[in-house]
Design goal:
By secondary structure, the chain is α/β, with parallel strands linked by helices. It is built from ten helices and twelve strands.
Length: about 280
């Protein structure tokens, strides 16, 4: 069963906007106060970024570049210090952030750590229905329960429904988190280094699941953060490269992800190669 077929099991929430522009950031700055330095430190500076419905973005950059900070804005987890951010047509700071987060799927390490190790895989997926770690049995209905089982089939883990989340391998946990993130039938799916720590077979299984999902649901928009070009799903349409809190390159993936831009972003002479939608990089 495809994600497209599953879409009818839970209709989108009545009254919610269905904008063509999913993320709109204009002149965004984010800073934090450094106690050690006794001054504010810029994490993001003058960020302009626009993501349209159905696009699949990959975000790359070195450690500390600002990728996760920018993703937290897209996830409605934080506010910009300056500038404006709109997500799904709603402006951060002028909307109910909790309600907005119910329309966003998120796969990240923080969520993985928060899930009780003894919780069965199926219940872990069900907990994503309302984007809450706590199980809200009183709000779950038969359609939710059916969808959770079907999503486990989509990610190839139906046989693990009763296994404890903490007993799953790292690769299995990432696919469980992917199914969980899809539970609310999100308009926007955000993935923060989803392949981190995975061995090669597990990475390829995850990339395959992401590719199938993107191909089956033309309305879904995704943003995937990674350090490694080899982890980029072949269905990716756009790329954003960031370093030092500033955008180095952005746009259609073939135009933004070049040897020149990647070298500038990582500060090394890097040769970028693409074959059948898969990307690789080598220092030369």
């Amino acid at each position: 069963m495809s994600i497209d077929e599953l879409a009818s099991t839970l209709a989108r929430k009545d009254g919610q906007p269905d904008p063509g522009t999913v993320i709109l950031a204009r002149e965004v700055n984010v800073f934090r106060w450094s106690t050690a330095l006794k001054q504010r430190v810029m994490l993001l500076e003058q960020i302009d970024w626009q993501v349209e419905r159905g696009e699949h973005w990959v975000m790359l950059g070195p450690n500390g570049a600002g990728k996760t900070t920018l993703l937290h804005l897209a996830a409605a987890d934080s506010h910009p210090s300056g500038g404006t951010v709109e997500v799904l047509g709603r402006r951060l700071g002028a909307t109910d952030m909790r309600a907005l987060r119910e329309d966003i799927g998120l796969v990240d390490a923080r969520t993985s750590r928060a899930i009780p190790a003894r919780r069965p895989v199926l219940e872990t997926v069900e907990s994503g229905a309302f984007n809450s770690i706590a199980l809200q049995h009183q709000r779950l209905n038969e359609e939710h329960l059916k969808r959770a089982g079907e999503l486990l089939e989509v990610v190839g883990l139906a046989e693990l429904a009763t296994r404890a989340f903490g007993e799953c391998s790292q690769g299995e946990r990432q696919r469980v988190l992917l199914a969980r993130a899809l539970m609310p039938n999100p308009d926007l799916l955000l993935l923060d280094e989803p392949a981190s720590g995975l061995d090669l077979p597990s990475r390829e299984q995850l990339v395959s699941a992401l590719s199938s999902m993107a191909g089956d649901d033309p309305s879904l928009t995704t943003v995937t953060v990674t350090h490694h070009l080899e982890e980029i799903p072949p269905t990716s349409t756009h790329a954003l490269l960031i370093d030092g809190g500033r955008i180095v390159s952005r746009g259609p993936i073939a135009e933004a992800l070049t040897s020149e831009s990647v070298s500038a972003c990582f500060g090394l002479p890097i040769e970028v190669r693409e074959s059948s939608g898969r990307w690789s990089a080598a220092i030369h």
